[in-house]
Amino acid sequence: MKLSNRVLNRTLLARQHLLERSGLGVHELCDHLIGLQAQDMLPPFVALWSRTADFDPETVSKALDDRSLVRITLMRGTIHLVTPPDALRIAPHIQPELEKIPFRKGFNFGALVGLDPEEVRAQGDEVLGDEPTPAATLREHAATRYPDRDTGAIVQAWLYQLPVLQTPPRGRWGDSSRPVWSRVQPWLGASLDPGYPLEELLLRYLRAFGPATTMDMQTWSKLTGMKKAVEKLGDRVRTYTDDRGRTLYDAADATLADPDLPAPVRLLGWYDNAILSHQDRTRIVPDGNAPPLRAFANQVSPILIDGFLSGVYKVFARGDTASLRISPHAGWSRADRAAVEAEAAALLSFSEPDRKPVIEILDPGADLRP
Fold this sequence. Notes:
This protein has about 375 residues and is α+β, with helices and mostly antiparallel strands. It is about 40% helix and about 15% strand. The model has no long low-confidence stretch (mean pLDDT about 95).
């Protein structure tokens, strides 16, 4: 059976809870989506606000404090907000790939060339110990132990080599303070679980992002061996083809969405996984290319109209004013503009409740900088 791009779009949006806001709790949604992108403080909150009804951001702050949610480096080597069971069972798949990064010749312009990886790991193991350690303290230890090396590169190596996570206060609502790092076992009181099969993780990916190709799965996870893992699922998956004849896999009991379902305007956070989790992004990005990662790094975020990336926005909060500036990718209808303005106003009311909201829709393709 061949699936049109519009079927893939509506199915993705439905599985991401972007067609209508869900009644799921924060923990349930994090589990379903296999974590929320959380490189910075705000994006997971925007992700939850855009996907759930009556979202209270303090639920995330409390969950970080009581350790029922954690911020940990997982898929694509980036920080995700996940439940502890996912932290413990997904990290063993990701950790071996992370540990290769610091000692590649191109890492920080060869800053660690000539060092013994096991000796560096042992030093990091000793420095981190069993108590949460601020990033500044890690840098101090790195400078003492490796005075002739780039301290930032040493700290990065430790954070890749050792299973660690970020502890509060960073990640609480409104708190973008510098990271404090802890080893996983002392913080969660449990060791990593290496027995979680890759195929089970991929089946969950399909339930949240499918149908998808094996290359989509690899793009999402940055892992290899997708084909072999999918084969182990046997009749738990079914196959389709897309418009280009590529094989798409899906959970056998998952349903496809009606391509004629209406898709409301949604404003997502930068680095949202709905945009970044497929090799072929045409199901949500019309030209197949999301804004460059450097744009996301500058807190430029996607706007979906009729389910597709149709513009970007950025919030500038200064003094008593919060300005949400919007750059459409093309001309919008009057109805689209009104819907975007309404959603933008709702987002500012959520994210900047104490500031005066200002919404600016610029000319198509305009620079967002004031």
